[in-house]
């Protein structure tokens, strides 16, 4: 299988979607088993009690508590519109933010962040001018603090479709922003697996878009998912890395395997660095990540730094490369944007 293939299917009776690139699983999303808060869902919440030592405040949601990392200007009992920013860790409140985003395939509405913006990936000046006009017409008469971003998918879309998408997102945003009276309530569902795939995975256009039942089995996705149950990831050249999530952090150990040549350490480390973003993405792992690379010289570390930066450059997830510790470990932090795969599949 060559090229980029997007597949919509089911796992254990739940919607699931996968991206396969040149025969390799590149991304995966599965609906959770229970009625949990999905990242992207928007709620009307009620401010509860502040936690000054943590610089935030608990808020009441329909299914429990959320935690908002903000105290200034918020009083207990105040009604707030919040959006789930990531999955809740076991025993902890659901992380939420007041910076709402109304996101569709072509447009993102940004309350509190005014301005009309076009994706920088679209560089054709004539196209940008056409999109700027669509944006201006679509947001005419909107509140001054309601912004719009036109996404890169607009580059291949029909102008009428884009205009309809802007109008739909604007109507939704304005309706939600006005709905501030009442108790805790879910106002906008977070995107399910199929919705997410159709919203975010069709740009660039895949060579194949599979919606037939049994697509995972037909394209080998089930075997690829099974491989993710193992902490061991085999790398090019015979080396491997072991990925082990703990409660505090994700620990990764890189090993050279049977190769005993002088360049073995650098080769396996480069392979591990290139594989790492995809493995973290597929396994749904984030937070603090600590990598114990195979021993290399300080000169080779500089080469490895460049490979690591390049590997994470195209990632949509927010990743901070903290760098090397005095013990020779490499640290990074990665925003938790989905449930861990092990939790989704039990």
Question: Can you tell me about this structure?
Answer:
This protein has 346 residues and is an alpha+beta fold. 27% of the residues lie in helices and 31% in strands. It contains eight helices and 20 strands. The protein has helices at residues 125-138, 159-177, 193-200, 215-218, 221-227, 264-283, 298-313, 341-344, and strands spanning 4-11, 14-21, 24-30, 42-51, 56-61, 64-68, 79-84, 94-97, 102-103, 107-111, 116-118, 146-150, 185-188, 208-210, 232-234, 240-245, 250-255, 287-292, 319-324, 330-334. A six-stranded mixed beta sheet has the order 15-16-17-18-20-19. β11 (116-118), α1 and β12 form a beta-alpha-beta unit. α6 packs parallel to α7 (298-313). The longest helix is centred in the last third of the chain and has 20 residues, at 264-283. The mean pLDDT is 94.
Essential attributes:
346 residues, alpha+beta, six-stranded mixed beta sheet, 8 helices, 20 strands, globular
A few lines on this structure:
The protein is α+β, with helices and mostly antiparallel strands and 346 residues long. 27% of the residues lie in helices and 31% in strands.
Contiguous low-pLDDT stretches (5 residues minimum) are none
Spatial separation of the terminal alpha carbons: 29 Å
What structural category arises from helix and sheet content? Answer: alpha+beta
Number of helices: 8
* pLDDT averaged residue by residue: 94
- For the secondary structure, the number of strands is 20
Instruction: Note the main sheet.
Output: 6 strands, mixed
């Amino acid at each position: 299988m060559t090229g980029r293939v997007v597949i919509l299917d089911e796992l254990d009776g739940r919607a699931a979607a996968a991206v396969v690139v040149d025969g390799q699983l590149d991304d995966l999303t599965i609906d959770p088993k229970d009625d949990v808060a999905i990242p992207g869902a928007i709620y009307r919440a009620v401010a509860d009690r502040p936690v000054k030592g943590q610089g935030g405040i608990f808020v009441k949601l329909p299914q429990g508590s959320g935690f908002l990392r903000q105290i200034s200007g918020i009083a207990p009992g105040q009604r707030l519109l919040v959006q789930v920013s990531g999955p809740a860790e076991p025993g902890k409140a659901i992380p939420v933010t007041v910076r709402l985003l109304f996101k569709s395939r072509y447009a993102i509405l940004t309350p509190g962040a005014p301005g009309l913006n076009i994706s920088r990936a679209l560089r054709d000046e004539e196209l940008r001018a056409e999109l700027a006009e669509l944006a201006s017409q679509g947001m005419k008469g909107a509140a001054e603090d309601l912004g719009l971003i036109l996404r890169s998918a607009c580059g291949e879309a029909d102008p009428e479709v884009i205009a309809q998408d802007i109008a739909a997102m604007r109507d939704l945003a304005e309706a939600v922003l006005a709905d501030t009276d009442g108790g805790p309530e879910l106002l906008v569902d977070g995107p399910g697996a199929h919705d997410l795939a159709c919203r975010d995975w069709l740009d660039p256009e895949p060579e194949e878009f599979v919606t037939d039942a049994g697509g995972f089995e037909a394209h080998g996705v089930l075997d690829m998912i099974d491989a993710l149950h193992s902490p061991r990831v085999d790398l090019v050249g015979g080396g491997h890395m072991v990925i082990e999530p703990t409660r505090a952090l994700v620990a990764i150990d890189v090993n050279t395997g049977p190769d005993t040549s002088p360049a073995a350490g650098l080769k396996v480390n480069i392979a591990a660095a290139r594989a790492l973003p995809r493995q973290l993405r597929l396994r749904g792992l984030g937070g603090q990540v600590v990598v114990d690379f195979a021993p290399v010289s300080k000169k080779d570390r500089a080469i490895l730094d460049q490979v690591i930066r390049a590997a994470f450059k195209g990632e949509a997830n927010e990743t901070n490369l903290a760098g090397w510790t005095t013990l020779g470990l490499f640290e990074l932090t990665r925003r938790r944007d989905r449930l861990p795969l092990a939790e989704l599949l039990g």
